Amino acid sequence: MSVEHRLFNTSNGSLPYLLSPISDYIKQPAPLVLFLHGARDRGTDINVLLKWGLPRFVDSSNPLPYIFAAPQLPEGQTWVDRESDVIALLDNLIASQPIDPSRVILSGFSLGTAGAWHIAASHPSRFAGLVAVSGRVPKRLEASQLAALKKIPIQIFQGGKDEKLPIEDAEQIVDTLRGLGGTVDFTVLPEGDHFIADEVYSDSKLQQWFVSQSRRNIPLVV
Predict the structure, then answer these.
(1) pTM score
(2) How high does pLDDT run on average in the chain?
(3) Is the backbone peptide bond immediately before 74 cis, with ω within 30 degrees of 0?
(4) Cβ neighbour number for residue 179 with a 10 Å cutoff
(5) Contact, 86 vs 114, CB < 8 A?
């Protein structure tokens, strides 16, 4: 399934992104998986996203039961810098594609995970799930923002030999979120280093999880 190259214009400059084509296999309206890449994939050549991880998995797979989108940052920027543009892109995709707004999954790798945590915590009503791969929770997140995440099912993946991320840091955030009443699955790949994205995203259980989440299934707290 060859992904398309698109361009989304914002007041902060254009944001190129990858978008999977709509196939007859997709039941409409469909889930959306919105992916935020890591630091080394920033730049002007969006094809670098297709070399590994979730973008490569989507691009090399048969039609999948969800729509996939992946914007690209310019050099030197972070996803926190472009938070408003990511949300604007999400709004644009929902308006222009057959997407179920109650079934949007946000996922990130490394730098993208930090962005995903921040964006999900700032806009918790927009997402049905969060998948964090090889990335830490930004220290700037306040307790109230973390509490907002308790309604979003979260999957956290980390390599046991990741020299950039202490396992203890991930365990602490898992304990904090669970203490707030959140639903968090924490998976450690014992032999994995920082670059575990290929193994994580190609797992059939995670692929099924992408399409099984819905905000309609999340109890409302009155």
Answers:
(1) 0.94
(2) 91
(3) no
(4) 10
(5) no
